[in-house]
Amino acid sequence: MGGIRIGTSGWADRELTSSGWYPREFNDPAGRLAYYARHFDLVEVDTTYYGIPAPETARAWAERTPDGFTFNVKAFSLFTGHPTPASAIPAALRPAGGAARLRRRDLDPDAYERLWDGFHDVLTPLADAGRLGVVLLQFPPWLTRGERAKERIIATADRCRPHRVAVELRHPSWFAEDDVLDTLLFLQAHDLSHVIVDMPQGTPSSVPPITVSTADPAVVRFHGHSDAWESGDKREKFRYEYGDEELAEWASRLRELAGEGDELHALINTCCGDTAPRTALRLAAMLTSAPTGPRPR
To answer: Which Gene3D superfamilies does this chain map to (predicted)?
Structure first.
């Protein structure tokens, strides 16, 4: 597949581990990651969005995967402006008062810096082992386009350096017809990968899948097309299985996108049993086969 890497958003969520996709003998974290790495050379670490693990955990991830395997690591929710459960923050760094959810402004500046230090302690062993792809900054859907928002994105990305950074923007204002070019040029100017998202269209929160690369690697995240995107809980929003025609069209688009840079990361972020790895394997098979006929419409 040339510079195209395929994987899933996570490898150990409960629905997947109970689906039967992992053989019975691979029944612990080490075994599951090793088995996953037999099939894919890319995975997205989503657990780091919910809490910052110990550096030893990241070193174990590196040790359990072969050379050439890549981890994209999602930034801790507090860093990208999401209200974060107080329980996700070490007790020594929590403010007094007992609030259930916290924002950056609620933390002592030193505590905030120590959280970033802890996050970099997770990234470092992956980078040292040649396993780190990008740090994924997924900004909240209420972050609207504007100069202050751009400054915030740049400041957050700078905290992730020297590692490569990908940015997922989730408010439609960034991709309005008159503004999308400015958004893409902004990301390109700051060496930030534009995260291309495939998601349900026609809802107030929909953003279009603009297949343009702004930095290496290009990143595509597949959220599916659930009818419950606006009304369902998290599992219902992402409960979807791509059809063959959908994947064939995306295989064509990914081939074209891969020609814009050195590397492309495609990640299936759907749930329902083993839907994500099965979909990723189907997409990989389509990409390794020779394209036939015109691009599907």
So the answer is: Protein of unknown function UPF0759
